[in-house]
Amino acid sequence: MRRETEMSSVLMGLLCLVPALAQSQVDINAATMQNIYSNLDARISPCNNFWAYACGNWSFNYVDNFALAEETYANEMLRVLRDNRLIQRGTAPRLYNNMFDYFTACAKNQTEELQLPHELTFYYFEWIRAMARLRKYGLNGVFFEETADVAYNDSLRFVVQLKMPAAQSNYMPILLFKPEIQQLERDLRALYEKYRRNEPLLQSWTLGRLKQEIPQIDWQIYFRELLEVEPSDTELRVEVSDVEYLRALGELLRRCNKTSLELYLRVQFANFAREVNPSSGHAPRVHSCIHHMRALLPLGMNYIYDRYIYRTRSQDTGQLQTIFDSLRGMFGKYLDWNRLQLSPQQIQYLHAKLAVMQLKLGNLPDATTTEDFFDSHYASARFSRSEFQQNLWQALRLRTRLQHAPLLQPGATLQLNHYYVNDDLFRARNAPYFEHERNTLTVPLIFLQWPFYDHRQHSIFQHSLMGFILAHELSHAFEQDGILFDFAGNESPLGMHIRQNSKFENALQCVLQTPTKSLRERLADLNGLQLAYDTFFGMGHDSQRFEYQPYAFEKEFPAPQLFHLNFAQFFCGRLPPAIGHDMDDVRVNEAEKNLHQFSIDFRCRHQSPLSSCEMWRPASI
Ligand SMILES: *[C@@H]1O[C@H](CO)[C@@H](O)[C@H](O)[C@H]1NC(C)=O
Ligand SMILES: *[C@@H]1O[C@H](CO)[C@@H](O)[C@H](O)[C@H]1NC(C)=O
Ligand SMILES: *[C@@H]1O[C@H](CO)[C@@H](O)[C@H](O)[C@H]1NC(C)=O
Ligand SMILES: *[C@@H]1O[C@H](CO)[C@@H](O)[C@H](O)[C@H]1NC(C)=O
Ligand SMILES: [Zn+2]
């Protein structure tokens, strides 16, 4: 779902407002309605600007609901991580001990400016060796990106992926760089511009082949330093995009002044250290520590939250699975209707993908996992209770080592029931996400809280917010990128054929009539809202033909209006700048504009059914 926000600076004083709900006797539906009413700006017409109508009166001391969820989460975790009795009493004592030590040092040993780890002082500077060392500490995407991941055509097999750094939408002005490195930065940008392709060709090679194909870079040194063993030419497999770029990069850096190059890497690492250091930001130190640990030590944090705080796993699992299954059922009907007129084989491909799609609550290994697995996950860590900076460097190195460890076991395949993480996040995910390689939708535990979701809520609230979120994620499996992956998470020519289908392309063009920062996200919003709506009200539902009895907890809004209003609650807030997708008001308004029934539900004078872009949903009858 990709929607992250910054913690608000001023929110701490007033947090008693809502989190107390968990223990209180307040009726959860009444509380949800109260929220909806307090966000509502009745002066605005829902037909003109639905977001402004549903969210215009947002007056919480939080940026948005995510800030509220982060706060509640942090307060709960603080209770547990400050309780050192759990070291003896708890399960997985070693894991708990590690987390306790890390937290304790983080909370009390704040470091404004991090010192470079000793290992990063170079007596003889070689850029490729330096890069590998910095990578061990988590720095990625300087010169090129390196990731331990799974193969494009075999989602159980580990490979190293190499590609050029991701496109930066807003580069820092060159003049802000130190004079000695301005030229290098200019040269790099020229390379990016020259070699960036929309769909770069992917090469699947062994290390030996990589060395032949791109001799401008000493890959043997790079991988020996990174993996801390001599890498095998035949067993280490790599997937390389942007081959021409990497060759040109090797040439450029070989010619480059070593002093400038070293300075350049130092500056990059200093920026990285600032970003990863939890002291940056406005939230209280202890809260920053919690969210920092959630990003850096996710298994430990998830385990502790699940074990000591999360109390409604069984109810939530059952309910979410039911909602998810009903969404899949409706999407299956869409497929049978076959709006895009795909071939039977193509429809079968999509059905197969839908059928085995998984839903996971929290990124944790499956229930059969022993305490021992958890206890040994961070076993090599020796965190101190007083020196935060040492811990931070250790944790970063540990993460890189865990990500790369499977590459050292030739023939090892991914264990789907085990925990794995291959991202380099500094801020943990709050919102649900879909992983194409695993055909799996994960809901982070932090998201399983009111006001996003509560198992006691009426199903109209659950379907309109969590249902929409799950439908949005499910839709990612069928957008222009997701569709390339088959049921097992392997890229498939069948998926490519569907994407090249002219009806599929027309549906994308329709959506692009209104410009968007991310076509993928736009598609997931539009298709997700349509799917969630149909799943709750039934396909072909028409508000004009039915009288709706208001619910016991709500006298004013008929059911369809309530559905739209609660959907919008997910997006209510102070409109923080969006990263990677459109602003929240645009997202809400675009999704509703494309839902045929919306204007009927709100009795808008101007109905715009013909402008709506529908991709999978049967054409309105
Ligand atoms: C906004 O909310 C306040 C209460 O927080 C309420 O008094 C006011 O009437 C609301 N404004 C509108 C326009 O709905
Ligand atoms: C805490 O961190 C500082 C660096 O900011 C360091 O000088 C100090 O020795 C550390 N340890 C303790 C126990 O305060
Ligand atoms: C490299 O650059 C530094 C300053 O950026 C300069 O002092 C040095 O002479 C340069 N070295 C070479 C070999 O050009
Ligand atoms: C995946 O691609 C590589 C390289 O193109 C090839 O050697 C391998 O056999 C393929 N694996 C599968 C399972 O198709
Ligand atoms: Zn999304």
Automatic annotation (TrEMBL):
UniProt main location, coarse: membrane
Annotated localization: Cell membrane
GO CC annotation: plasma membrane
Matches recorded under InterPro entries: MetalloPept_cat_dom_sf, Peptidase_M13, Peptidase_M13_C, Peptidase_M13_dom_2, Peptidase_M13_N
Keyword Signal: yes
Domain of life according to the entry: Eukaryota
Membrane topology, record value: Single-pass type II membrane protein
GO terms for MF: metal ion binding; metalloendopeptidase activity
Any single GO BP term: protein processing
Family affiliation: Belongs to the peptidase M13 family.
Protein name: Peptidase M13 C-terminal domain-containing protein
Keywords: Hydrolase, Metal-binding, Metalloprotease, Protease, Signal, Zinc
